[in-house]
Amino acid sequence: MGEREQAGRLPGEIVEAYRAPLPGGGERDPREVVASYRQPDPREVVEIYSRPVPAGVRKPPAASRTRRRGILRGRRAGLYKFLICAAVLVGLAAAGKAVDLIYRDQPRPGEEIYERSAEITIPSWPVDQGAGLSVSRTQGDPLTAQEVYRRLNPAVVTVQCLSGEGVSVGTGVIFSEDGYILTNHHVVRGGSECYVTLDSGYSMDVCFVAGDEDSDLAVLKVPPGELMTVGALPFASFGDSEQLVVGDPVYAIGAPRRLRGTLTNGIISAIDRDIEVEGRTMTLLQTNAALNSGNSGGPLISERGQVVGINVAKYMSDWNRDSVEGLGFAIPSAYLERIVNDLLKWGEVLPEPRLGIWVQAGEPGLFVQSVDPDTAAEAAGVRAGDYIVAAQGQEMHTNQDLFRVRRTLYVGDKLTLTLLRDGETLEVTLELDEAVE
């Protein structure tokens, strides 16, 4: 949903001309041409129909032609302007798909396998500067759409990155007053220069801190010189996506088709939707809030005025240029805290540790269905049939409770579990020496 601009005709542009038969089997005048300028699906099509003077109709007299000459010139000028505008629109639409993450039901015949992105050469900003992203477990009171917009829009920026291929346009959200910005990795990949535009229209150069292609997240930083110009920046608060349920109202703010500060609304359509993205599976929030090219990297916002996701993509139809409506996806905020803080601290995302147990929600805790051999759980003495009632002192009621604890741990850490076995409570410690694959 980022978009690119390129000068001139785009690679793969097809210019075709054909003559169509008349209804009933008749033939059209040989001089008639039906020309269409097409881009490969799902790109726009602009069609131009040119017809000769019908047979049997006399040309107007010279005087009449003279009087009409100015009109015809005006019409030709209008047509030329239309063709030029149409070509530009086609180019923008086609180029926009170059960085647009489009999830299809199936690949098209001959579609190439996804290749890793080009190197990012945007001026860098050092990691491990004490910055961090915090996700609040506390929800505030519901807000109106107007209140959500007034609160969040100042913290939303339009991101534009220059590369050898053109300009990639997306959205970002400021998460600290000293100018750290979160966006999608595909918005900045291959970039050599990058700047952001505030809701006021003020633009600032930014540096690249770090990014992770697998999670499609990247962190940018406004350098101090720019901050001195604008003062402390407004920033958004992040809420816990795991507290969302299907049907909850949500909002998106971004720059679809460069329309900065656009607010759209919808609901949460699904939780934990597994979507295959460029050869990998991402677990995302699904929403029917309108998302379009340019919304990538922007916030999905709860009715409490908290960012609960980062918009990443939408479904598009397979064989025509029309978009499927109401199928947008966002990276849940529950995953952001671990990923973003790893990027800020180490410049990369470190793997989570493997526990080696399979559980399901139950009473009085998480029921252990099975334990994998040669894992930390087996070594600690966890058995199938146990109930996990606490992890690191936190009560366990759902699988997400255990995942939340695991996201705070790294390979080499220890995990303390409180178990209930045959009516007896016992405590075990897992030595986490293996990473999740």
Short description:
It contains seven helices and 25 strands. It is an alpha+beta fold and 437 residues long.
Write a structural description.
The strands form five sheets. A seven-stranded antiparallel β-sheet has the order 10-9-6-7-8-12-11. The chain is globular and about 65 Å long. 19% of the residues lie in helices and 33% in strands. The protein has helices at 62-96, 145-152, 185-188, 224-230, 333-346, 376-380, 399-406, and strands at residues 14-18, 33-38, 45-50, 102-103, 135-136, 156-163, 166-174, 180-183, 193-197, 203-205, 207-212, 217-221, 238-239, 249-254, 262-277, 280-287, 299-302, 307-315, 328-332, 357-361, 366-371, 387-391, 394-395, 414-421, 424-431. It has seven helices and 25 strands. The protein folds into three domains: 14-96, no CATH class; 135-346, Thrombin, subunit H (Beta Barrel), CATH 2.40.10; 357-431, PDZ domain (Pdz3 Domain). β15 (262-277) and β16 (280-287) form a beta hairpin. By secondary structure, the chain is an alpha+beta fold.
Average pLDDT figure: 79
Cα radius of gyration in angstroms: 28 Å
The order of strands across the largest sheet is 10-9-6-7-8-12-11
Number of beta-strand segments: 25
Record keyword descriptors for this entry:
7 helices; alpha+beta; 19% helix; six-stranded antiparallel barrel; single chain; Thrombin, subunit H; 437 residues; Pdz3 Domain; seven-stranded antiparallel beta sheet; globular
